Amino acid sequence: MKKTHTFIQIGTGGRGSCYCQYLNEPLIKEDRIQPVAAVDIIPENLKEAKKGYGLPDEKCYTDLDKALSENEADFVLIVTPPAFHEAAVDAALAYGCDILSEKPIADTLEGSARIAAKVQAAGRKMAVTMSHRFDQDKTTLREEIQSGNHGDLDYLIMRFTCNCRKFGAWGTSFRHTMANPLIIEGSVHHLDILADMGGAKCDTLYAQTWNPQWGEYKGDSQALVTMHLENGVRAFYEGAKTNAKLLNGWSHEYIRAETEKSTLILDNRELTAHTIEASDEIRPEPTTSTINLREQKYWKDTWITEQFCDWLDGGAPSPTNVENNLQSIALIFAAIESSRSGEPINVQEFLQTAKKEVESALRT
User: Fold this and answer.
1) ∠ CA 61-67-73 to the nearest 5 degrees?
2) Helix (H) or strand (E) holding 141
3) Are 79 and 324 spatial neighbours (Cβ–Cβ below 8 Å)?
4) Which residue spans within 231-329 are E strands per DSSP?
5) What sign has the CA pseudo-torsion 150, 191, 103, 315?
6) β-pairing, 33-39 with 5-10?
7) Are the beta carbons of 269 and 293 closer than 8 angstroms?
8) Cα–Cα distance measured from residue 135 to residue 158, given in angstroms and rounded to the nearest whole number
C-alpha cells in the first residue's frame, strides 16, 4: 500500500534548489512525499525551501541535529557536496531515518564503503540518485539493447564533450576547485550507464585523466576510459569539459552500441537503429530506422524518488540501493587510481579490498 513519506532535505542551494523548485513537486502533489523541514549551513539558501516547499521559518534550520530532533521524518534527502555526505548519513541513522542521497555516495571509496556498512548495520534503507541512468533516452537504449531484437551486445562507446573550460562554466565553483571533478561529478553517471547497459559488473578498467593548460580546474577535467565487463562486453568512454566545441553535453551524450545485428546510435537524444537483415550478400546494407523514446510519467530524479518510496512501502529494493551503487563508486575511484598508477585496475578486487579495510576499522 502506498503511503505519504515525510522527509527532511539537507542542502537547499545549488542542486538542492532543483529539488525544492521542481524535482519533488509532482510527488508532493500526489501525496507520495511531504517535506517537514530543510537544513542548510548557509541561511540564504533556505529561501529555496521556503519558496518551493512553502516551509515556514521555524522549519528551516542551519543545525542538522536540531532539525532531526525537532521533526519526525521517514527519510532524509541529502543534497550536499560529496565530502559532507557521511556526516549527514551518520545523523540520519542516529535518528532512525532512511536515506536518499545525491551521487556519489561519498568523496572517497573508503567513505562510500563505510557508509554502506553503517546503513546495513543500522538496518536502514539508502538509495543514490543516479539520475542519468533513468533518463528517457538512456532507458530507451538500455531496453532496446536488452530486448533481444538485435542479438548479443559486443561493445559500447560513449562521448560526453563540453566547452566548460572557464572558471564557473560548469555550474557551481566547487567543481573547479575539487580533485578529479570530471570523474566524480560527471563520469560517475557515465561509467555507471556503460556498466548497466553492458549488463554486468566491470572486471578491468584502464583510464587516463588530465587537465590541459587552458582548463581552469584544480583537478583533472578530461578522461579516456576503457572497461571490460565480466560478460565480455567492452566499453570506451571519452569525457571532456575543456574542449573548444560542445558536441554532446549534459543529458545529450552520444552512445553507440554495437550488437550482432545492429548498430544502435543515441546522439543528442535521438535513437536510430542500423540493422542488417538476413542476407547472402557479403556486405549487406543496413536498414535505418528511428526508435521512438519510451513514454512514462516520470524520469530521472523524480522516478528514482518514486522507486525509493515504493521500496519504503515494502516493494523491491531501489536499483540504486547503496550496496549496488558501490559498483558505480568503484568505477570512478578505479579510474582515478588507474590514471595515477598508469596500470589497469581489477575493479572487483579494488572494491573488496576497500570493503575489508572498512569492516576491519569499524570492528576496532
Assistant:
1) 130
2) helix 136-146
3) no
4) 234-240, 254-259, 262-267, 270-275, 287-291
5) positive
6) parallel
7) yes
8) 15
Report residue 280's pLDDT band, with 50, 70 and 90 as the boundaries: low
Q: Starting at the edge strand that comes first in sequence, how are the strands of the sheet with 234-240 ordered?
A: 287-291, 270-275, 262-267, 254-259, 153-161, 234-240, 222-229, 202-210, 345-346
CA atoms within a 13 Å half-sphere pointing along the CA-CB vector of 69: 4
What is the rounded CA–CA span in Å between residue 263 and residue 286?
9
What SS3 class is residue 197? helix
Cα angle value 180/185/190 (rounded, 5°):
105
Cα–Cα distances in angstroms (integers) from residue 233 to residues 157, 206, 230, 254, in the given order: 11, 15, 7, 18
Task: State which H helix or E strand residue 41 sits in.
Answer: none
Whole-angstrom distance, CA of residue 68 vs CA of residue 144? 44
Give pTM, 2 decimals: 0.93
Helices (H), 218-299: none
Q: What are the structural domains of the chain?
A: 5-131+300-322+340-363 (3.40.50.720), 133-291 (3.30.360.10)
pLDDT, one tens digit per residue, over 18-63 is 999 999 999 999 999 999 999 999 999 999 999 999 999 999 999 9
Spell out the SS3 assignment of 203-221: EEEEEEEECCCCCCCCCCC
b/e code 101-128 from CB counts within 10 Å (16+ = b): bbbbbbbbbebbbbbbbbbeebebbbbb
Query: Do residues 242 and 221 make contact, with C-beta atoms less than 8 angstroms apart?
Result: yes
CA dihedral in degrees (328, 88, 171, 320; nearest 10)? Answer: 30
**Residue range 231-245: average pLDDT?**
98
Q: Pairing state of beta strands 126-129 and 345-346?
A: unpaired
For the chain, how big is the Rg over CA atoms in Å? 21
Residues 41, 65 contacting (CB under 8 angstroms): no
